[in-house]
């Protein structure tokens, strides 16, 4: 793993044969390190079963490079850079056809007059090229960092961008929807809180948003999902249980899911679709991993990530063929990030380049991470 230790002076493979545990709470398998610079605040999206990673901050520069990961080859390849200034803490999403990257924070305005770029770009995998698209009409007439985004594929082919923090440290709750078929943005109502630093995933054409901080700078317990099949004004629902122990039932007594700047992905455990949240911070940086069961609307703890706790990491869900069923099964991959995020959108300390796959049905073996 490339580990880069820096101090900012600004304001701001294969499975091992032995198994040392009889605990089937999941294993973390180290994959090929990211080929670009170690970084924090990058963005990621999945398209045609390749995991794309773009932008971020490496301790010296805000970046605009773009790479993709092929899980079948366990290999990274660079593609055309984002045709704009570098940035960190932006957003990314993908539909069935294209990937999208935009917003974020840049510590030097590079002549643009703003530290918060509002531009957005579409990536065409058939040509490996980026083209600009219209920017969402942000209510503060500027950009935001640490918004959360998700993309929903066919038949909807939309992307949603929610919340974030602007240049005056104001939190937002506006929800912007990119309509790929019409080529424009619309604003839809979001009845929840002002929100930043959340994590998201997509399951059965619904976008789920969880964790993060509110405008009181405290970690939120909200858990919402967006269903584009519902009538306008009724697409968001908070009918899911909140992410800390609020009942007298034993199932949520130990919930510690609350955090900010975490990552999320989906997977399958014992043949049942699940979602996962890990990393992020709740005071110190976290390594614990939580599994969400769609059927029971409950969380359970899994094996902790064996690497360093971190914030500003990335997550990708990629499909891997199960040799026993010959079907594609979603697997989660996480990586990059750094020790801490600063108010200026950058970071201090150590930055990471490791990439790790989570295997929820295997017993934990630290050698699968440490010896790769």
Automatic annotation (TrEMBL):
Q: Where are the transmembrane segments?
A: none
Does the record's keyword annotation contain Lipid metabolism? no
Q: What is the lineage of its organism?
A: Bacteria, Pseudomonadati, Bacteroidota, Chitinophagia, Chitinophagales
Q: Does the keyword DNA damage apply?
A: no
Tell me the domain of life.
Answer: Bacteria
The record's InterPro entries line, in alphabetical order, gives:
Kelch-typ_b-propeller, Kelch_1
Q: Which organism is it from?
A: Dinghuibacter silviterrae
Q: What is this protein called?
A: Kelch motif protein
**Protein keywords:** Kelch repeat, Repeat
């Amino acid at each position: 793993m490339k580990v880069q230790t820096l101090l900012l002076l600004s304001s701001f493979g294969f499975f091992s044969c032995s198994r040392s545990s009889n605990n089937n709470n999941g294993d973390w398998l180290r994959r090929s390190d990211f080929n670009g610079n170690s970084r924090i605040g990058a963005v990621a999206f999945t398209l045609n079963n390749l995991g794309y990673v773009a932008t971020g901050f490496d301790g010296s520069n805000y970046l605009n490079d773009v790479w993709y990961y092929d899980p079948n080859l366990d290999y990274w390849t660079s593609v055309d850079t984002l045709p704009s200034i570098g940035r960190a803490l932006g957003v990314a999403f993908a539909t069935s056809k294209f990937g999208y990257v935009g917003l974020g924070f840049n510590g030097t305005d590079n002549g643009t007059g703003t530290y918060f770029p509002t531009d957005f770009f579409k990536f065409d995998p058939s040509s490996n090229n980026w083209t600009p698209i219209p920017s969402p009409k942000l209510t503060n007439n500027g950009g935001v960092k640490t918004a959360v985004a998700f993309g929903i594929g066919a038949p909807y082919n939309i992307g949603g961008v929610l919340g974030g923090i602007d240049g005056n440290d104001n939190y937002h709750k506006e929800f912007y929807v990119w309509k790929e078929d019409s080529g424009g943005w619309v604003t839809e109502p979001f009845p929840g809180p002002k929100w930043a630093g959340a994590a998201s995933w997509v399951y059965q054409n619904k976008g789920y948003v969880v964790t993060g901080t509110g405008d009181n700078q405290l970690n939120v317990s909200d858990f919402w999902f967006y269903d584009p099949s519902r009538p306008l004004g009724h697409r968001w629902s908070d009918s899911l249980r909140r992410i800390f122990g609020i009942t007298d039932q034993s199932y949520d007594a130990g919930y510690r899911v609350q955090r900010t700047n975490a990552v999320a992905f989906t997977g399958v455990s014992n043949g049942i679709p699940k979602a996962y949240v890990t990393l992020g911070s709740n005071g110190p940086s976290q390594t614990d991993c939580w599994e969400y069961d769609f059927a029971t609307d409950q969380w359970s703890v899994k094996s902790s990530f064996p690497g360093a706790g971190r914030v500003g990491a990335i997550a990708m869900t990629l499909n891997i063929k199960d040799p026993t069923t010959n079907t594609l099964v979603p697997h989660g991959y996480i990586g990059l990030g750094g020790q801490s995020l600063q108010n200026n959108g950058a970071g201090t300390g150590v930055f990471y380049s490791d990439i790790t796959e989570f295997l929820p049905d295997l017993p934990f073996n630290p050698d699968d991470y440490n010896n790769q």
